[in-house]
Write a structure and sequence with these properties.
GO terms for molecular function: kinase activity. This is Polyphosphate kinase 2 family protein. The chain has one domain: P-loop containing nucleotide triphosphate hydrolases (Rossmann fold, 3-Layer(aba) Sandwich). It has ten helices and five strands. The protein has a five-stranded parallel beta sheet, with helices on both faces. The N and C termini lie far apart (52 Å).
Length: 273
C-alpha cells in the first residue's frame, strides 16, 4: 500500500463545520526536525517545486490553482514570497482580490474570479478569492443569509467545472491565533518599515474574530472535496507554515505527475551550424 502524503495531516476530509478553536495554530506536528532542520528541508522542497512547475509549464495541457485564505496578517504575502522563490515566473501568476469594483458588483460574484483562473501549463495563486463572498459578506451581513448560503453550491459547481477542464485545485487556509494576529498588527504599527501595511480597518475587523472563525469553519466543511480539498495549516510559526505549504504543493504536483513533452522528430540528431 502506498504511503499517505505528508500533507494529508492538514487536509479537511469531513463536510461538517471545522472547529478552528480546536486546532493549534502554533503546532509543529510532522515537521522534519527543529526550526533549522525544517528550513533545510524547505529548501529541498522548493527545488522540487521548481522542477515540477517546469514540467507542468512545458507539458502545457493542465494547470494548478492555489487558493490562499487567512485572517488579516495571516501571512499570505509572505507565504507566496517564500514558497515560489526560484520558480519560472512565466508560469506562475498571483491574483489579489480586493473589494469588488462597481463593475464587478454588477455581475455575479464569480464573474471576476473566472477570468483569472490559470491557463494550461500555469500555476495561479489567489491571494484571497471567491471565498470572501461567503466570509466577509456573511460577517458583515452584506447580503441575506439565503444568498450567501446558496453560494456554497455555486462554488462547488464552479470548482467542479474547473476540475473537469483540467485544473487541479488546492485550497489552503493559513490558520493563525488571535494572539499572533495581535502581535503582527502591533508590529505593523511599531515598525516604520512595515507601517505601510497597516490598515485601520484591520482593527475593526479584529472585533469580528469569532464570527470569522465560525464563517471559515462552515465554508471549509461545505466546500472541501476530493478534487478541490481544503487544508488548514498552522501558521503562527512562519518556518513551519512555509514548509507545510510547500509540502502540500509538492505532494499535489507529484500526484499530477506532469511530464516534459517528447522532442520533435529528429531533434536528437540536429546540428546547429
Amino acid at each position: 500500500m502506498a504511503a499517505r502524503p505528508v500533507s494529508d495531516r492538514w487536509r479537511v476530509t469531513s463536510r461538517r463545520p471545522v472547529d478552528l478553536s480546536a486546532r493549534d495554530a502554533s503546532a509543529k506536528t510532522g515537521a522534519p526536525g527543529d526550526k533549522d532542520a525544517t528550513k533545510a528541508h524547505t529548501a529541498t522542497l522548493r527545488a522540487r517545486l521548481a522542477e515540477l512547475q517546469a514540467k507542468l509549464y512545458a507539458e502545457g495541457s493542465r494547470s494548478l490553482l492555489v487558493v490562499l485564505q487567512a485572517m488579516d496578517a495571516g501571512g499570505k504575502d509572505g507565504t507566496i514570497r517564500a514558497v515560489f522563490e526560484g520558480v519560472n515566473p512565466q508560469g506562475v501568476k498571483v491574483v489579489s482580490f480586493k473589494a469588488p469594483t462597481p463593475e464587478e458588483l454588477a455581475h455575479d460574484f464569480l464573474w471576476r474570479v473566472h477570468a483569472q483562473v490559470p491557463s494550461d501549463g500555469d500555476i495561479t495563486v489567489f491571494n484571497r478569492s471567491h471565498y470572501e463572498d461567503v466570509l466577509v459578506v456573511r460577517v458583515h451581513d452584506l447580503v441575506p443569509e439565503a444568498v450567501w448560503r446558496g453560494r456554497y453550491a455555486r462554488i462547488r459547481a464552479f470548482e467542479e467545472l474547473l476540475h473537469a477542464e483540467g485544473t487541479t485545485i488546492v485550497k489552503i487556509m493559513l490558520h493563525i491565533s488571535a494572539e499572533e494576529q495581535k502581535e503582527r498588527l502591533q508590529e505593523r504599527i511599531d515598525n516604520p518599515e512595515k507601517r505601510w501595511k497597516f490598515n485601520p480597518a484591520d482593527l475593526s475587523e479584529r472585533h469580528h474574530w469569532d464570527a470569522y472563525q465560525e464563517a471559515y469553519g462552515e465554508a471549509l466543511g461545505q466546500t472541501t472535496a476530493r478534487h478541490a480539498p481544503w487544508y488548514v495549516v498552522p501558521a503562527d510559526r512562519n518556518w513551519y507554515r512555509n514548509w507545510a505549504v510547500l509540502q502540500i504543493l509538492v505532494d499535489t504536483l507529484e500526484q499530477m505527475n506532469p511530464q516534459f513533452p517528447p522532442a520533435a522528430e529528429g531533434a536528437e540528431d540536429a546540428v546547429v551550424v
